[in-house]
Prior knowledge:
- It is a single chain.
- The chain is α+β, with helices and mostly antiparallel strands.
- The chain has one domain (10-129).
- 43% of the residues lie in helices and 12% in strands.
- The chain has 5 helices and 5 strands.
- It has helices at 10-17, 38-43, 51-61, 72-93, 119-129, and strands at 21-24, 30-33, 94-96, 98-100, 111-113.
- The strands form 2 sheets. It has a 3-stranded antiparallel sheet. Strands 4-5 form a two-stranded parallel sheet.
- A hairpin with a 5-residue loop joins strand 1 and strand 2.
- The chain is globular and about 70 Å long.
- The two termini are 34 Å apart.
Amino acid sequence: MTEAKKAMTVQEVRDAIAKPKVITLPSGLVLKIRRLTPLDYLNEGLTTIPNEFFTFLVEINQGKLDLGNADENKTKKNFEIFEQFVNITLDKGVLEPKMMFKYDKEKAETHLLYSELNGTDQAMLVSEIIGKAEAK
């Protein structure tokens, strides 16, 4: 007789999602990461994300952001949210080697600077951490 599978608890599901994994970026760099969920961002204080922020992300990703015709206040706010989003993504999602978005002299010997990665690696890394990478 086969035993019926028991449903996972909420914490078991969260632990499974966040289980560390090793990825190889297109450049060949190997990193240990964990997938983040919206709860990770909420717990770090990123609680209010306006809908236009997602349009902003798409425009950045597609190289279509037109700063000349953009509302300056909305653009500034979107860049602030973007910076907070990437800081959380790198700080909580990249386990080894540690990574930083903005240069910090005190961390220079222990953390990679995000901008040291090429654009393809950057995109894949963030996609893997936020769970948007294509299934393999």
